[in-house]
């Protein structure tokens, strides 16, 4: 039975197999993720540095094989699913999904009002994209319907991607394409290669024009090898240049055929700054900015070829653009951008009916708000502010603008590669071209804001186009707060959400291809497809992972601009995870109950607390790229960032600190290589060593005014807070800072440029040591520069030291190898050692006349210094002062110099001749050793101390003149003087030390006087060829005999003797050197000096006279049988000076008479000399009358003139400033005026008997608190005014002078004042008077004009041009022209003015 059943089954199976028709396997469905991956491949979408966005989808895992491609598509906005939603990667790709995503990539846009040609458009979410699909033939309609939810078949997908590939191929350019242009009849073609300059849209200049162009002709010139047609207006010839005023011609009437393609590289020199934008040229290889393109180009050309390569930008140069915009009181937005790699690609074929043009460029931008919170309403109208315009000849041009709307705090960094263009064809119409390459974007904010950039590309000259394309990109954010009144926690929720927006558009025509004019707008990123979507939630001030009250609450359901609406934390419950690079602040954790993610506690910050419960952040575990450090953690106020807290965090790009932070510790942000934007807190007082060390991304920094301390590490040169920040170039100090802290920029190797605020009075030690400081402007109030402040600044080539500096400490500029010139102002009274040591390029130095000592090593190693002039107060040149100054050729000595210390001029190998001043008494060891070019040296009789090795190794020395003041020839004095042949030893020398003339190979002759009693056996190296000349029977003969040296007796008697002075007047206690001249010079007689009355004056054996007591005596010198004498009179010197005041406080224009009392009363010469250390602050007359001029301090010095140099000083403090106005236009205060101001403005109109002073209608003082006082020339008060009492009023002042004094209190101010002055009457000279009638504009001259005398009237216009000149010889009246300024002179017969000009008007 079982066998029968089995057989039956087999039979049934066979029958079924015969009867059932064949079923083919179904075509595999194309999934959504497969379709997206194919788009990524087709359009070569790339993201730098794996800079992927966050995963916004609840059903996507990072471990999925397709994760990277999906994230790349998200980065470019291809996917527009709300954050927190599902992507459904394995669902089939529908027609609508495929059409929408593909058209997003290719950029077709329907014209406004275009009708849909399929019946089921109402059932779609993206009807425009589906209409493009119909137009392109991607899908076949079924009964007039497109069926949007139908799955895409592989065949359809293949056709769509093939079409996309063809569109991309159409944009490809061929290498070395042979362009052809044909023109209509009667079009004049200026051949390509002719030099043409299109200075603007209306002026064309052609050099050596090979064709004739007349008015009305249509002509074509080539710009960037592109023909541009014009209609000629006026035509002029200037030498070989034809200049044509022209307008652009219509392409349709000019071109008969075009087949052309190519790429134009943008010319940096075509860029124009707008609205205060600062332009510079940035060389990528050197990371340095230059003011002009030519300077940048020269820098590139100095580079090795390999270093200069690697950029599309011409010569590797980028355009640097900087702009600052005021958003409100004390609030600014600064924008810093670099534009490079600008190219324009084009392709036109009239035969095929297609054309396209594309602009590509790279833009790196940092934007930052500086200041306090202001409402968005204050700046709501700020938009579309032009940043830079860049013309591209032959194409058109593009401009970049930025717009901002903000309240709160933010900063950001954008780095993007942008491609913007348009394509047109007869079959498809217009479409926008966009790019699929991105760089980086970082945004730090807790605010409501919109900030971004817009690029507008005009194509007005390229044949076939007259259109504009634009693209904008930026970020939008919104902050919302909700409070609760129940007993549950939290009591306050605050939600912040933001996204990246982008859109592009097109407007214009391409009449050579199609006739229509189009206007298209295309949204790239909105809130639903933005690659950056941020959703932060705070509860009672603490950032948490999700809302406790309602995790799925939709916080924002209104449009924020840029398309769509923000729904961060919305219905799908998306919150930015802690692992995100957009987690701006990190959780405020530190304990287990403050933050969570996926149900687990998360500790983002670690911290310690002090005795006051304040927190110092010690570590950070978050993933944020933009970081807003919280003001509190777990209720503890954050006051410091601890050592190494964020060290090595490569994710960080921007950081904002709470204002309560006072200290940022050592290494806090060290090695954060991608950190580019930081805003230091307003309350900061201390920065630790290498706090931002090695942060190569930082290019600018603002130092708050409260920063007082900066630390350095133990590295050899001591690296400061910004050590090795190689790209830091723009440094700003907040106004109000008074001292630049020590070590602040030590070892910061960025090329720093900075201007110090006027409030700075001191620069601390090591402040910029070994930094890349490039330029610095020092403020006018600077007093002191401490040690090593600029040491090792190898890029610093010039510096202006203001006239207020009094102290420059040691090594301030040492090692500034590029420094070329220095002017030390007169105010400097103290300079330390080694100030300019190793400034190898320094060639020009001007020292302060107050300089007394040239300190040790001050100019050591200044190998370019050729000349030095010592001020007349210099008494000492200290050791090594000019050591190794190998170019030094000329020295102008001080009249007061007394000492030159050891090695002072050692190795000065260009010095050829030295004549030591007669005031010098001592020379230190090796003072002139190794001076290889030195041929002649003269030592005066005044020198009594002579160091060892003085002229060691002076290879060219041939002439030596030693003064009679020397008593010894020290060790090695002339050792290795290779060409020295002979020396005469002075008559008072008693010893010649060891090695004195050692190895002087040509030395053969020496005269040794009778005074020498000791000669070391090693003094001479070559006795066999030496001859000693001397007096018989002296030690010279004995030494010669003992050492087998030839001795020649020389006994020459003196025949005449003279003294440089025969009468001498000395102050008691002073001294003077008498100079002796003996004939012949080689005399051998003994010299004796004596005084007839030693109680009056004594004399030394060198002729030094010392005054002992009042009276007269005779000094006599005898040489052999001849003698000379000098009558010496000793007089009473000034021994003391006293002043009636030693300190004064004056108001501007105030005066005070200083008087002196001379002690003793019988001083022979009681005359004194007056001087001021700062005559611009307080001047002093020859009689001691002090006049106060400007706010500040000056020292008035009175000095005796009898040679005793007794002096006394009076310190004058001027409490305000007097502005002595040369013209009435200068009678104007600052607007608004400063607080605590007591300044005075004074104006004199010569010859006037009264002045009419008219005040501007805006004149205003803080009512009841601030005042204006009016005075005449005698100081008589005319009136006191406040508020608007003077606005538009005229006040009459008697005489020719008006003085206006402002008195403002410490707070509150207003506009201030501005005044004009007119005189209606005055006196010229000799009783001749003038009067002016403004209503009639008539000038009258009254009084008898002397014979031969004349009155000259001169009238000038607003530009100072003389419009009328008239001479009168009699009295009378004259009608004057309407002139800006009228002057009257009284002149004699020789046309010489007999009085100052009387200014009637102006």
Question: How are the elements arranged and paired?
Answer:
Blueprint: H1 2-19, H2 32-42, E1 46-47, H3 67-75, H4 95-106, H5 127-136, H6 154-170, E2 180-183, E3 188-189, E4 196-200, E5 203-207, E6 218-223, E7 226-238, E8 241-248, H7 251-254, E9 255-265, E10 271-273, E11 278-283, E12 288-290, H8 293-301, H9 305-308, E13 317-328, E14 331-349, E15 354-370, E16 385-392, E17 396-407, E18 410-425, E19 429-433, E20 437-438, E21 440-445, E22 448-459, E23 466-483, E24 492-509, E25 517-525, E26 533-539, E27 542-544, E28 596-597, E29 600-601, E30 605-609, E31 615-620, E32 626-628, E33 632-633, E34 636-641, E35 654-656, E36 663-664, E37 677-679, E38 686-687, E39 700-703, E40 709-710, E41 730-733, E42 739-740, E43 753-755, E44 762-763, E45 775-777, E46 784-785, E47 807-808, E48 821-823, E49 830-831, E50 844-846, E51 853-854, E52 867-869, E53 876-877, E54 890-892, E55 899-900, E56 913-915, E57 922-923, E58 936-938, E59 945-946, E60 959-961, E61 968-969, E62 982-984, E63 991-992, E64 1005-1008, E65 1014-1015, E66 1027-1030, H10 1035-1042, E67 1046-1049, E68 1056-1059, E69 1063-1067, E70 1071-1073, ...
Parallel strand pairs: 1-20, 3-6, 31-34, 32-35, 34-36, 35-37, 36-38, 38-40, 39-41, 41-43, 42-44, 43-45, 44-46, 46-47, 47-49, 48-50, 51-53, 52-54, 53-55, 55-57, 56-58, 57-59, 58-60, 61-63, 62-64, 63-65, 64-66, 66-67, 69-76, 78-85, 86-87
Antiparallel strand pairs: 2-9, 4-5, 5-8, 6-7, 7-8, 9-14, 10-16, 11-12, 11-13, 13-14, 14-15, 15-18, 16-17, 17-22, 18-19, 18-21, 22-23, 23-24, 24-25, 24-26, 26-27, 28-29, 30-31, 33-34, 68-71, 70-74, 72-75, 73-74, 75-76, 77-80, 79-83, 81-84, 82-83, 84-85, 87-92, 88-91, 88-93, 89-90, 89-92, 93-94, ...
Helix pairs in contact: 2-3, 2-4, 2-6, 4-5
């Amino acid at each position: 039975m079982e066998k029968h059943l089995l057989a039956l089954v087999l039979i049934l199976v066979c029958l079924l197999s015969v009867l059932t028709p064949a079923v083919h396997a179904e075509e595999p469905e194309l999934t959504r993720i497969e379709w997206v991956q194919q788009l990524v491949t087709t359009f070569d979408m790339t993201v730098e540095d794996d800079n992927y966005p966050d995963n916004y989808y609840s059903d996507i895992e990072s471990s999925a094989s397709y994760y990277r491609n999906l994230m790349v598509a998200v980065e470019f906005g291809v996917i527009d699913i709300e954050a927190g939603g599902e992507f459904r990667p394995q669902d089939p790709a529908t027609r609508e999904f495929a059409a929408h995503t593909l058209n997003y990539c290719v950029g077709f846009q329907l014209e406004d009002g275009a009708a849909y040609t399929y019946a089921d458009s109402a059932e779609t979410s993206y009807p425009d994209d589906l209409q493009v699909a119909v137009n392109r033939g991607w899908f076949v309609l079924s009964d007039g319907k497109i069926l949007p939810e139908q799955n895409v078949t592989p065949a359809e997908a293949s056709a769509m991607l093939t079409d996309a590939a063809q569109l991309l191929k159409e944009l490809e350019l061929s290498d070395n394409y042979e362009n052809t242009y044909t023109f209509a009849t009667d079009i004049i073609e200026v051949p390509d290669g002719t030099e043409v300059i299109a200075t603007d849209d209306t002026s064309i200049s052609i050099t050596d024009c090979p064709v004739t162009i007349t008015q009305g002709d249509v002509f074509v010139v080539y710009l960037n090898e592109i023909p541009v047609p014009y209609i000629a207006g006026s035509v002029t010839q200037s030498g070989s240049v034809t200049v044509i005023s022209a307008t652009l011609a219509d392409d349709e009437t000019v071109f008969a055929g075009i087949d052309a393609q190519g790429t134009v590289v943008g010319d940096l020199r075509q860029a124009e700054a707008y609205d205060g934008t600062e332009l510079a040229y940035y060389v990528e290889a050197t990371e340095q900015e230059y003011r002009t393109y030519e300077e940048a180009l020269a820098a590139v050309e100095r580079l090795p070829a390999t270093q200069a390569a690697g950029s599309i930008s011409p010569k590797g140069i980028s355009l640097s653009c900087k702009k600052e915009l005021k958003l409100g009181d004390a609030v600014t937005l600064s924008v810093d951008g670099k534009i490079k790699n600008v190219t324009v690609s084009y392709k036109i074929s009239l035969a095929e009916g297609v054309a396209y043009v594309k602009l590509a460029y790279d833009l790196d931008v940092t934007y930052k708000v500086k200041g306090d919170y202001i409402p968005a309403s204050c700046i709501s109208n700020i938009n579309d502010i032009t940043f830079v315009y860049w013309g591209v000849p032959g194409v058109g041009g593009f401009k970049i603008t930025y717009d901002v709307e903000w309240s709160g705090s933010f900063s950001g960094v954008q780095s993007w590669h942008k491609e913007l263009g348009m394509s047109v064809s007869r079959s498809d119409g217009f479409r926008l071209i966009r790019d699929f390459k991105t760089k980086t974007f970082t945004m730090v904010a807790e605010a409501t804001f919109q900030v971004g950039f817009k690029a507008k590309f005009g194509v007005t000259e390229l044949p076939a186009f007259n259109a504009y394309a634009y693209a904008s990109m930026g970020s939008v954010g919104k902050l919302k707060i909700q409070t609760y009144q129940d007993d549950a926690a939290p009591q306050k929720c605050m939600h912040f959400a933001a996204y990246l927006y982008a859109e592009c558009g097109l407007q214009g025509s391409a009449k050579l291809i199609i006739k229509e004019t189009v206007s298209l707008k295309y949204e790239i990123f909105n809130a639903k497809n933005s690659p950056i979507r941020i959703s932060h939630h705070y509860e009672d001030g603490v950032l948490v992972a999700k809302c406790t009250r309602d995790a799925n609450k939709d916080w924002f359901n209104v449009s924020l601009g840029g398309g769509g609406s923000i729904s961060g934390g919305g219905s799908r419950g998306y919150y930015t995870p802690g692992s995100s690079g957009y987690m701006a602040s990190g959780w405020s954790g530190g304990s287990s109950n403050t933050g969570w993610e996926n149900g687990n506690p998360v500790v983002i910050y670690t911290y310690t607390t002090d005795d006051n419960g304040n927190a110092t952040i010690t570590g950070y575990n978050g993933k944020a790229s933009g970081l807003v450090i919280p003001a509190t953690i777990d209720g503890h106020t954050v006051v410091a960032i601890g050592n190494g807290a964020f060290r090595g965090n490569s994710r960080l790009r921007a950081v904002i600190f709470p204002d309560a932070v006072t200290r940022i510790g050592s290494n806090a942000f060290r090695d954060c290589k991608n950190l580019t934007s930081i805003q230091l807190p307003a309350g900061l007082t201390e920065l630790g060593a290498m706090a931002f060390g090695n942060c190569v991304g930082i290019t600018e920094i603002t130092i708050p005014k409260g920063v007082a301390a900066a630390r350095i590490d133990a590295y050899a040169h001591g690296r400061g807070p910004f050590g090795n920040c190689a790209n830091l170039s723009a440094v700003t100090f907040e106004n109000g800072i008074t001292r630049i802290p020590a070590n602040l920029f030590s070892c910061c190797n960025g090329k720093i440029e900075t201007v110090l605020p006027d409030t700075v009075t001191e620069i601390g030690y090591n402040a910029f040591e070994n930094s890349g400081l490039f330029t610095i402007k020092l403020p006018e109030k600077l007093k002191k520069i401490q040690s090593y402040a600029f040491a090792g600044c190898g890029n610093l080539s010039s510096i202006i030291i203001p006239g207020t500096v009094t102290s420059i400490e040691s090594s301030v500029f040492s090692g500034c190898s590029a420094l070329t010139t220095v002017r030390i102002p007169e105010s400097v009274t103290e300079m330390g050692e080694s100030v300019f040591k190793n400034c190898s390029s320094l060639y020009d130095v001007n020292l302060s006349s107050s300089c007394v000592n040239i300190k040790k090593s001050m100019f050591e190693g200044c190998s370019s210094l050729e000349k030095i002039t010592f001020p007349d107060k210099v008494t000492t040149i200290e050791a090594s002062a000019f050591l190794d100054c190998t170019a030094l050729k000329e020295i102008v000595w001080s009249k007061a110099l007394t000492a030159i210390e050891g090695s002072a001029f050692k190795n000065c190998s260009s010095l050829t001749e030295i004549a030591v001043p007669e005031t010098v008494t001592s020379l230190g060891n090796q003072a002139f050793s190794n001076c290889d070019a030195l041929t002649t040296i003269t030592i005066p009789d005044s020198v009594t101390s002579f160091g060892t090795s003085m002229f060691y190794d002076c290879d060219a020395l041939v002439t030596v003149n030693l003064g009679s003041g020397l008593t010894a020839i020290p060790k090695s004095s002339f050792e290795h003087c290779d060409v020295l042949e002979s020396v005469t030893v002075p008559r008072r020398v008693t010893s010649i030390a060891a090695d004195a003339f050692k190895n002087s190979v040509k030395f053969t002759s020496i005269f040794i006087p009778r005074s020498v009693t000791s000669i070391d056996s090693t003094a001479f190296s070559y006795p066999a060829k030496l001859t000693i000349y001397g007096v018989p029977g002296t030690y010279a003969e004995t030494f010669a005999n003992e050492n087998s040296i030839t001795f020649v007796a020389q006994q020459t008697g003196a025949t005449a003797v003279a003294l440089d002075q025969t009468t001498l007047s000395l102050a008691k206690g002073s001294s003077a050197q008498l100079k002796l001249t003996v004939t012949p010079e080689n005399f051998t007689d003994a010299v004796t000096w004596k005084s007839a009355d030693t109680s009056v004056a004594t004399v030394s054996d060198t002729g030094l006279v010392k005054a002992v007591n009042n009276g007269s005596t005779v000094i006599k010198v005898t040489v052999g049988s001849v003698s000379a004498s000098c009558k010496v009179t000793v007089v009473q010197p000034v021994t003391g000076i006293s002043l009636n005041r030693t300190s004064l406080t004056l108001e501007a224009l105030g005066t005070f008479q200083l008087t002196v009392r001379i002690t003793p009363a019988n001083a022979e010469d009681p005359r004194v000399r007056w001087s001021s250390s700062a005559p611009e602050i307080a001047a002093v007359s020859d009689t001691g009358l002090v006049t106060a001029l400007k706010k500040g301090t000056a020292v008035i010095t009175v000095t005796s003139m009898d040679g005793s140099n007794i002096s006394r000083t009076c310190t004058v403090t001027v409490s305000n400033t007097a502005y002595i106005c040369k013209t009435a236009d200068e009678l104007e205060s600052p607007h608004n005026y400063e607080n605590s101001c007591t300044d005075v403005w004074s104006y004199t109109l010569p010859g006037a008997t009264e002045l009419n002073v008219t005040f501007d209608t805006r004149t205003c003082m803080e009512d009841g608190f601030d005042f204006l006082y009016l005075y005449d020339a005698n100081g008589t008060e005319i009136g006191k005014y406040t508020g608007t009492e003077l606005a538009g009023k005229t006040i009459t002042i008697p005489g020719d002078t008006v003085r206006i004094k402002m008195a403002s209190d410490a707070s509150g101010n207003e506009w201030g004042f501005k005044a004009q002055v007119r005189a209606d009457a005055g006196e010229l000279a000799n009783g001749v008077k003038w009067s002016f009638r403004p209503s009639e504009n008539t000038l009258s001259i009254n009084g008898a004009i002397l014979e031969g005398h004349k009155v000259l009237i001169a009238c000038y216009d607003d530009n100072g041009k003389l419009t009328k000149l008239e001479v009168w010889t009699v009295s009378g009246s004259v009608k004057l022209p309407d002139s800006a300024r009228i002057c009257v002179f009284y002149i004699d017969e020789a046309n010489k003015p007999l009085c100052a000009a009387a200014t009637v008007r102006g």
